From TrEMBL:
SMART domains from the UniProt entry: Biotin_carb_C
Documented EC number(s): 6.4.1.3
Highest taxon in the source lineage: Eukaryota
One Gene Ontology cellular component annotation held by this UniProt entry: mitochondrial matrix
Pathway(s) annotated for this protein in UniProt: Metabolic intermediate metabolism; propanoyl-CoA degradation; succinyl-CoA from propanoyl-CoA: step 1/3
Domain ATP-grasp: 146-343
Gene source species: Dicaeum eximium
Residues of the Biotin carboxylation domain: 27-474
UniProt-recorded name of the protein: Propionyl-CoA carboxylase alpha chain, mitochondrial
Amino acid sequence: KNACFWREKNLYSVCLSRLLLFFSLQTFEKLLIANRGEIACRVIKTCKKMGIKTVAIHSDVDANAVHVKMADEAVCVGPAPTSKSYLNMDAIMEVIRKTRAQAVSLNVSICCSFLFSLSLQALEGVTFIGPDTHAIQAMGDKIESKLLAKNAKVNTIPGFDGVVKDADEAVRIAREIGYPVMIKASAGGGGKGMRIAWDDEETREGFRFSSQEAASSFGDDRLLIEKFIDNPRHIEIQVLADKHGNALWLNERECSIQRRNQKVVEEAPSTFLDPETRRAMGEQAVALAKAVNYSSAGTVEFLVDSSKNFYFLEMNTRLQVEHPVTECITGLDLVQEMIRVAKGYPLRHKQADIPINGWAVECRVYAEDPYKSFGLPSIGKLSQYQEPLHVPSVRVDSGIQQGSDISIYYDPMISKLITYGSNRAEALKRMEEALDNYVIRGVAHNISLLREVIVHPRFVQGDISTKFLPEVYPDGFKGHKLTDLERRQLLATAASLHVAEQLRSQRFLGTPRIPIAKSKRSSWELSVHLGDGIYPVAVSKHGSSFSVEVDGMKLNVTSEWNLASPLLSVTIDGTQRTMQRISRNASGETSIQFLGTVYKLQILTKVAAELSKYMPEKAAEDTSSILRSPMPGTVVAVSVKPGDTVSEGQEICVIEAMKMQNSMIAAKTGKV
């Protein structure tokens, strides 16, 4: 059923290949997974396929997590903070000894991977699933990796190749390079410890925040500065190498849709690359891998300008979040390949064997509010959760389930939603359908933003860069803007749903009810409040369909009207739409997810609407004198004290959320 794995032409070849693999390749009996969430679940799935027993580690708050339930064994290694549990080297080493695991999979930051790989060398007979310590250390240090890339004849970005000592030196270097510049953590990754500076003031501020984030996330506050390539694409090459000197490039991934230097939507292949550029990037990526004797799956990231000039950005020595799109178009299981390489087997494929079959798109579904800076973290319990696996050619990599908690301690990712098609248009259409059918309740999520991105004309045409989001939404993301037709469809569906509920509430199952009304009602006059408008809507029932008049136009709305289902499939004048009713109350207020965005409506009878004008309105709270954090997090610095006079725009405090530091500023001049 998995759309992206094993595209053999018949069942016989699938069974035969797996039987041959099972009997001919001995890898490991037991593997410990030093991670959590979707990536831990992903590794466990391949281990089960290969007949390898798994050991999961977990913090005390993750005792009921999905990866814990999936593994053959599970051991608690400490309290919630990652430094005391998932990155607690001493506790993990003790678990390895007790469970007698033969191999360890760790998919975290390069700095932690290096320390862990180093610690494993003290344990005889335990194999690290990944490259050796030399490669991790070399590629984990952005300064050293840049020098190695230059020596390997890989294109690099102009910049300062040493360590920046302080803010004054940062300003001097930035002036020499020429603005804009990128300040980044030497040991960093994942968008953490990175700031763009356009002038001296931003350079000083960027140096401060980047060094603090780098120290918090990687235990290393060293920074480097390089020229910022304005308006580039972010395209990366997946590499795979063994311990016998063989290395392959597995095509590219387009990762240009980003917010805060973190990827949001990825796809493979890229619409931008021609075969010559693809080959050149692939060959340089392999040259870099060979230069450090790399042996595992890894990713070499490049920035590509409008003229298809490409520059080395960094190499990630782990399995990337976006690896599923590569698996979809190549048919390879990258986790399986990593395990085979770690055991010492040579690669099974040659470069000529690596195909590009079809197109794959991945959307990162986060527990975030996309209306705040394109996504600030949200926490809570998943009161309802349903993955769109009934949609054809859909894959969901997740580590949560209904009832799971999204906490402040870990990354707010809910899942990776992947769709596959024979071409890009088919893959995008399936993604659109999958997002409409994804049910998430209890936390804010970014499905509205993801859906808007994949249907935007610029994205559909492939006209994208790392500035896509701020360019398309210069005033911030506001949700989907309804056309007149879409507005009428929403109003007609909401009114029909309201009437269907009214009719259901009049029925008692199994017991005849004494009729109060003289005759069965077949028409309703309603008033629907949507946004700044109030719309008269007339509804009449014909069997299971409703005829709805909105703006002088009649629409026919048909559905099974299964009001217990979180998904509502309706047909409006022949157009099929999948909607979700998020909430409702007795005063007629309802929230409906339509085209990815949640709209708030109030549906009243004509009489109730006329009387509602007499209802007093609640005055809005004046929050101009209050500094309220827009996200859950930790206060890591307070820059003022009671009695201080502050001016508008002045920093009040710093909030750290998901290892990103955010400066909170005063909205107006006043006294603390």
